[in-house]
Design brief:
Blueprint (H helix, E strand, L loop, with lengths): L10 H9 L5 E5 L5 H4 L3 E4 L4 H8 L13 E4 L9 H11 L10 E3 L1 H10 L2 E5 L8 E4 L7
Parallel strand pairs: 1-5, 2-5, 3-4
Antiparallel strand pairs: 1-6, 3-6
Length: 144
């Protein structure tokens, strides 16, 4: 175990986060997402909720400051509705380290799948919230 790194972050996930470059995207997918269908690099985080993973990842991960929306979630299919508590819960976790981040972009379902195909990795979680998937775009880590 390492100091300062959440025990929710597996060694495999830590490795993926470290290997990502600026502009690369990672999908935190809900338990129903067809991750293996859309990406060759799939990690398992079974039993973990996405809001908790966001709280663990974002202290280590710089969001891209050079794009309008470094965060994206799937939009509801026409005739369906979103539960606003899902995004609110994610934003609560996100704002701990990124209080002034741009609003989350909503992406049409099939466009979201296309982004998952080109993502650096997909993390399959235990999240059961409908439309619970979120994409994070990695930025440049500031020099201290």
């Amino acid at each position: 175990m390492l100091k300062g790194i959440s025990p929710l972050i597996s060694p495999e996930l830590l490795s993926v986060l470290a290997r990502m470059g600026h502009g690369d995207e990672i999908v935190l997918a809900d338990a129903h997402f067809p991750g293996e269908t859309f990406n060759q690099r799939v990690l398992r985080a079974d039993g973990l909720k996405i809001a908790d993973l966001l709280s663990a990842i974002l202290p280590l991960f710089e969001l891209d400051a050079y794009v309008p929306h470094p965060l994206a979630m799937m939009a509801a299919v026409p005739g369906d509705s979103l539960d606003p508590l899902v995004e609110e819960g994610y934003l609560k976790s996100i704002h701990k380290t990124n209080p002034s981040v741009a609003p989350i972009e909503r992406v049409e379902r099939f466009a979201f799948y296309e982004r998952a195909k080109s993502a650096f990795a997909v993390v399959m979680t235990g999240e059961t919230a409908k439309y619970g998937n979120i994409i994070l775009k990695k930025g440049v880590t500031p020099i201290f």
